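My hope is that you will study the protein record below before we discuss the fold together.
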Amino acid sequence: MWSADEIAELCYLHYRTRLPKQGKPDPDREWTSLAAVVKVESSTQREVLASPGNLQVTKEVVAMGTGTKCIGQNKMRKTDTTIGRHCRKFEDEKCKPGDILNDSHAEIVAKRSFQRYLLHQMWLAASHQQCSIFIPGTETGKWKLKPNTIFVFFSSHTPCGDASIIPISEPENQLSKPVTGDDAAGQSERRSNHDHLGPEDKRKSEKTASNHIIKRMKTDDDGYFSVIPEDLTVQQVSVKREDDTNPKSCECSADMQTANKETGLGRPKVVDVYRTGAKCVPGELGDARIPGLGYHCVGLLRVKPGRGDRTCSMSCSDKLARWNVLGCQGALLMHFLQYPVYLSAIVVGKCPYSQEAMRRAIVERCQHISFLPDGFVPQEVKLLQSDLRFEHSRQAIQEVQTNSKTKLVPCSAAISWSAVPEQPLDVTSDGFRQGTTKKRIGSHQSRSKICKVELFHTFQKLVTSISQEDLPDTLRMKTLETYWDYKEAALNYQEAWKVLRSQALLGWVKNATEYLHFT
């Protein structure tokens, strides 16, 4: 069929040959992250019968994204509902909600690029073109994925958030050597000098400079989410909220200590945890911040950090967990689908990786969900790792630049690519098309093809191309105007999302409606 290495190799080849130099990092001083969606089509039943024992699959990259950045809340656009006008956030009257790309982490860019691909495929289906991945469903205006088609998600790095909370270990007979956090840091962004200390030095540093550590966590916009082990006994520890008031109790895994007790000669021993500047969701449980192994708590919802300006974007681990229940298509496309479009597998490139952490973060947190609407089912997504490393990952660039004194920084640009006929490529920086001047912000030319406004307009064109009698019930004879209206009208999706939030993802940071009222 296919292997993790085959998926990774296909994505790396696509990156090298199909993406432009513009938007890629300068390998002398920059690095980035890569994510993609690969369509895998197996032989049809007719082909299998014609050639038994010769099962073939075709693999095609249908969406790709690069990026490491996320804008702060102050740069988001919202509608002033009291006077019906748009707020000025960039000193520009033309700015409107939905015109900026809030989250440019590679996984999110790839997923939004995938939604653009799905919208085009739905237009092909509605136009009765056989090349679409969709076939008619049993309900009027509804479609479903062809039975021989699946989608595999690829990421060059462990997703930020709970999935990257993995242990640092080394053989017992080498404990005197300092352990650096460089390997795990590679999948995200910059880390402070504290992260390059050995574990014993880190503990001393935390005991003598705890105030400095807390300050770093409030300002570092480039963290990936740190480490605590899995699947053994759980201990109760006292933690504080983000505002350092009202201590709460947080479940913090103690399996590293247990694992260390069971460590035999020559077997790896867990010696520390990676630090992160990422914030736990405001008002919910927080990290214990106990020096050493107990610094972080696992299974918590987290928001991506911002440099001085808090973001509203949930971590990639949290978003992948959501997609594993609700699908990748989003609310708008759910109007046309009988079933969600799920990922069948997630492949991670060569980087620090924990199978247990991936499963905990993406599958197990939402595994127990019940009373979901018909068609929505928590998935047992296949989790795999490749032995092939991304050429522009932080680890790869660091190895090449070992003797260089140049400080490595994350590339500021994000690249979006979709398998669509018109303008498949998009390069953005700070949420807008790269090269956009302040004067041009808010214009059609400044917007990314995968921002909310552009995807919504593509969806509206799809709706207007279909006759009233062929539309699904949720879109027929309805007075729907804004992006918010259309999202809320996808009743089964909204019900599933409500159930998921109430049973598993409590505390999820939702965008206020004033960010979603646009046409």
